């Protein structure tokens, strides 16, 4: 009986952990989505990039599961870590998509759609190599922001890289896969082509994050 209970507990814990990965991923997608709405709502790009940072700030403060913030740590984890990444990414999409769809029901719909269409068309009319390169640089910055938040002990200094890195990737036009899930949803431009572009963004974000993580592990860990 004891052995059966232990097996049942192990299965329960495994599926509970996976459910947690998904739920934390959904909340992370929602936070990035809210940051994306802030960006779309402001005409001033510098101000928009600053307030977009609220998304990553909430993710870091509450330990949510953001794919771009976690992929770099694949170098330090077992193969089972892939479950956390995959479920987190699915959750990120659900959260970002939900925020986008709900905002289309509000009085801000017209202005948000107009801005989101401009942003989305710029991305979807770009070539895949360009999208990959821009996504790679974004992945580097997100890893730097998240890793410094984890490693810096100063209660003020740990937040500075979040705002700086997020503002830089937005002002430079780098591509963040989860943020773009929000923009594409608000713009209502989901097609097979859109999905392909998002997958390239995921790949680019992953490569960029892993490149910086490898450097950090080699020289500073």
Compact description:
The chain is mainly α and 221 residues long.
Features:
10 helices; mainly alpha; 79% helix; 0% strand; Glycerol uptake facilitator protein; disordered N terminus
Any chance you could write out the topology, listing elements then pairs?
Elements: H1 2-41, H2 45-52, H3 54-62, H4 67-70, H5 81-103, H6 109-124, H7 128-151, H8 160-171, H9 177-187, H10 192-219
Can you describe what's shown?
By secondary structure, the chain is mainly alpha-helical. The chain has one domain (2-219): Glycerol uptake facilitator protein (Up-down Bundle). It has helices at residues 2-41, 45-52, 54-62, 67-70, 81-103, 109-124, 128-151, 160-171, 177-187, 192-219. Mean pLDDT is 93; it is low at 1-9.
Order of helices and strands: HHHHHHHHHH
- What's the average pLDDT? 93
| Annotated CATH topology | Glycerol uptake facilitator protein
Level-2 CATH architecture = Up-down Bundle
CATH superfamily, please? Answer: Glycerol uptake facilitator protein
Strand content: under 5%
Counted by DSSP, the helix tally is 10
- How many angstroms does the end-to-end distance come to? 45 Å
